[in-house]
Write a structure and sequence with these properties.
- It holds the Pfam family Sdh_cyt.
- It is found in: Cell inner membrane.
- Its cofactor is heme.
- This protein is mostly helical.
- Helix content is 78%, strand content 0%.
- The chain has one domain (19-123): 3 helical TM bundles of succinate and fumarate reductases.
- It has helices spanning 18-49, 51-61, 64-91, 98-123.
- Helix 1 (18-49) runs antiparallel to helix 2 (51-61), helix 1 packs across helix 3 and helix 3 packs antiparallel against helix 4.
- The N and C termini lie far apart (60 Å).
């Protein structure tokens, strides 16, 4: 069966709705959190192993690169939290329409940006 539908595989030209971007970012933030928890657990294990290990982890955390990584993990956590709350609100039956979904996505993005900036100010 031959399909007459056009096929566009160029991802740079596909225009996705804002709800798709928030959904994709929610999944990406979940993956970042999964990897980040492993890194933080390794640091916790090292810090609890000995006094020297604690001092070593403490020195790492003071570096600008570590602060950037921690801010990135905290940003992923905050975005994932806000987007997750949006999904919980949608489970109650609110914001399931097209307009409601778009508004919810805009609120998630705006609130996440504010929280991420505040987290950056707190860390730095």
């Amino acid at each position: 069966m031959k399909s007459q539908r056009p096929v566009n595989l160029d991802l740079r030209t596909i225009k996705l709705p804002i709800t798709a971007y928030t959904s994709i970012l929610h999944r990406i933030s979940g993956v970042i959190l999964f990897v980040g928890v492993a890194i933080l657990l390794l640091a916790l294990d090292k810090s609890l192993s000995s006094a020297e290990g604690f001092d070593e982890v403490r020195a790492y955390i003071g570096s600008p690169l570590a602060k950037l990584v921690i801010w990135g993990l905290l940003s992923a956590l905050l975005y994932h939290l806000v987007a997750g709350v949006r999904h919980l609100v949608m489970d109650t039956g609110h914001g399931e329409t097209l307009e409601g979904g778009k508004l919810g996505s805009k609120i998630v993005l705006a609130l996440s940006v504010v929280l991420i900036v505040l987290a950056g100010v707190w860390i730095w």
